[in-house]
Specification:
With about 100 residues, the protein is α+β, with helices and mostly antiparallel strands. It has one helix and five strands; from the N terminus they run H-E-E-E-E-E. It starts with 5 loop residues before the first helix and ends in a 22-residue tail after the last strand.
Length: about 100
């Protein structure tokens, strides 16, 4: 009997039970993910190009403010806007010398 690897099994579960995630602001497709509640945490599994676009949860706007029921959406994480500067006087950034 052929054994199924855990990665293959997880891929099948994401394909069957996963949900498509959209950016709440732009409507861009962020991929298909499987959300699993685990001891007070939320585990997120995604495959393929789904992992190329990091996202974070946000509460969506509502017509009426209620704390008992809030809608949760997701936003794509913005690209960093700072320069990647490396200084030669910092030993961690200095090139290796032989």
């Amino acid at each position: 009997m052929k054994r199924i690897s855990s990665k293959t099994l997880l891929y099948i579960l994401v394909r069957i039970f996963g949900m498509r995630v959209w950016d709440a602001g732009t409507g861009e497709d962020l991929g298909k993910y499987l959300f699993v509640p685990w001891f007070g945490r939320l585990l997120v599994f995604g495959f393929g190009t789904a992992n190329d676009k990091p996202f974070y949860p946000v509460f969506l706007k509502q017509k009426r403010l209620t704390y008992s029921l809030q809608e949760l959406g997701f936003r794509k994480h913005p690209q960093p806007d700072f320069l990647n500067e490396r200084h030669s006087n910092n030993r961690a950034d200095a090139p290796d010398r032989a």
